[in-house]
Amino acid sequence: MGLHWGLNPLRYLVPEDILSHIESTQVDPHVPTSDNDRLPMINGQTGDMIIEIKSSKFYRLRRDKFRRMLMGGIDIRWGKKITNVSYSDDKLTVTAKFEDGTSDTGSILVATDGPHSKVRTLLVGEEAAKVTPIDFASTMCFTQHTREHALYLRAKPHNPLYQVAPHPEGCCAWLSLHDGDDKEHPENWTFFHYISFPEPREEINTRSNREHIAHQKAMARKFVDPWRSVFEWMPDDMDVWYSKLRNWDPSLPEHAWDNRAGRVTLAGDAAHPMTFQRGQGLNHALQDSFTVCKAIEEFWGSRDEGEAALIQKRTDALASYEAEMKARAGEEVRLSGENSLAMHDWSLLSKSPSLTKGMILSRTCIRCAALSFRAKKAVAY
């Protein structure tokens, strides 16, 4: 996952003694992150540099290591699958019910249960909750190679950690390191790569696993190295992950939900699954966490003021969080969708959000956040 501007909200949420380990959660903990890091965008046909996309500090994180870092000191209950949510008549509590027959009751439920969120379905209904496919798909591949080949894939002029390559014929390739922990044994490194391609959203893909690999290899032969080689060296029978590109815009009127007096809301991929080629998902999830945390801080101290005060402050605080999140993330869902289209259409590439905006948070989103915090301060005081 790519962490860049999301580092700022993360600093508020995580104690420094934990966050100090962020470098160790990178795909290669031996390569320090620099303020000068850039994401190279290469012409997949010629190998020419199109642009080095600017961002704030760009950490390329392993999900499993990053998650372990954040788990320290937290009581996590594993193996829970939510089935329903109920609300007390007095508007004070919410109860999550699980498949194993257990339940948990609290003042607020923040659902972060992924792009196919069960809670989102409960809030807006099955049809409205469905993610929307766009006209592209991808096949994700994780591969290991011989020592010689692994060293070649990380040698200059190839970027040692990540690079993206749109192709004039309408597909887009990515290559990055996924696991470089074993510094002395390149044959143990794992690489992550895919080629995304046009596919009508209504088309049902019936390729077998081997056929997905063959399809990726055929497209890769149109690319320059390192993509041509990393796919050619890939086994024909390994497991890969095929998926259509999908999103869900929380700002659409038909996606509005009732937060039940501030007792239930959505965040992260549950609130705004987006296409991945602008690298924004993790960063917006962290901004959600920051903003909802600030909202909780605003009403939590009002418990001693009586039930009516608690309910009103919680309702106002969560409404403010949702207004900020929907405006910010809704814009990003649309920008990421535009970016995915442009990365597969050479005539649109120069206008893609990746080229015109980089990976920073848009000015509109920054204004949304600032207005939201001012509104919440007015509510609190």
Report what the structure shows:
This protein has a 5-stranded antiparallel β-sheet, with helices on both faces. The protein has a 3-stranded antiparallel β-sheet with strand order 5-6-7, covered by helices on one side. It is globular. The protein has 2 domains: 1-72 and 132-247, D-Amino Acid Oxidase, Chain A, domain 2; 77-131 and 252-380, FAD/NAD(P)-binding domain, CATH 3.50.50.60. By secondary structure, the chain is α+β, with helices and mostly antiparallel strands. It has 12 helices and 14 strands. The model is unreliable at 371-381 (pLDDT under 50). Helix 9 runs parallel beside helix 12 and helix 10 (307-342) runs antiparallel to helix 12 (363-380). InterPro entries: FAD-bd (IPR002938), FAD/NAD-bd_sf (IPR036188). One of its GO terms (molecular function) is FAD binding. Keywords: FAD, Flavoprotein, Monooxygenase, Oxidoreductase. Its cofactor is FAD.
What layout of secondary structure does this protein have?
Layout: E1 2-3, H1 7-13, H2 16-19, E2 39-42, E3 49-53, E4 59-60, H3 63-70, E5 82-87, E6 94-98, E7 103-106, E8 109-111, H4 118-124, H5 126-129, E9 132-143, H6 147-153, E10 162-167, E11 171-179, E12 190-198, H7 209-220, H8 227-232, E13 241-247, E14 264-266, H9 281-300, H10 307-342, H11 353-357, H12 363-380
Parallel strand pairs: 8-14
Antiparallel strand pairs: 1-4, 2-3, 5-6, 6-7, 9-12, 9-13, 10-11, 11-12
Helix pairs in contact: 1-9, 9-10, 9-12, 10-12
